[in-house]
UniProtKB/TrEMBL annotation:
Annotated source species: Micrococcus flavus
Protein name: Hypoxanthine phosphoribosyltransferase
PANTHER family found in the cross-reference section: HYPOXANTHINE PHOSPHORIBOSYLTRANSFERASE, HYPOXANTHINE-GUANINE PHOSPHORIBOSYLTRANSFERASE
Entry EC number(s): 2.4.2.8
Cofactor: Mg(2+)
Amino acid sequence: MDAQDVRNDLTHVLMSTEEVQATVRDLAAQIDRDYEGKDLLIVAVLKGAVMVVADLTRALHTHVEMDFMAVSSYGSGTKSSGVVRILKDLDADLTGRHVLIVEDIIDSGLTLSWLKANLETRGPASVEICTLLRKPDAMKVEIDVKYVGKDIPNEFVVGYGLDYAEKYRNLDFVGTLAPHVYS
Ligand code: XMP
Ligand code: MG
């Protein structure tokens, strides 16, 4: 699939490459301020958060460790099931650690609220959340998110790690998926 074909699958570009990069740098600056002198463990949620975590951690001055977790709340569709499964658990012991969960997007919030509660049972010093995108109109649970890159409309978006049926993850911008692709 070349660039022109991808454009046909999108209604518009929601966040340009430049805006994504500036937003990630801004998140990194906030995290640097808050965690200065602390031992920080970044937990990235696979697969969607790979791009965010790769750029975010390289923009940080704070020394961090990185670990990865894979959970599933979706099939290949576009709606949250609310059922969360751990597909790959962390390697790290969280006892006494400052943990920052890095996500691509918060939609209903069901996945993250479940994940945050799960990690909090493992004895960490703190657990906070950083997400590139959030859909406030789709939120179904109250969830305290310390770092939000951008609030977006309740539409299905792809690119910069976000997929539809495993496609579009490697776009370096975020676009809104055209309904004809998934209906
Ligand atoms: P919830 O609803 O539990 O969902 O907050 C979080 C997970 O759902 C996926 N998700 C999306 N993926 N475009 C995507 O490519 C979207 O617009 C979208 N909305 C939710 C994503 O995997 C996220 O981690
Ligand atoms: Mg995801």
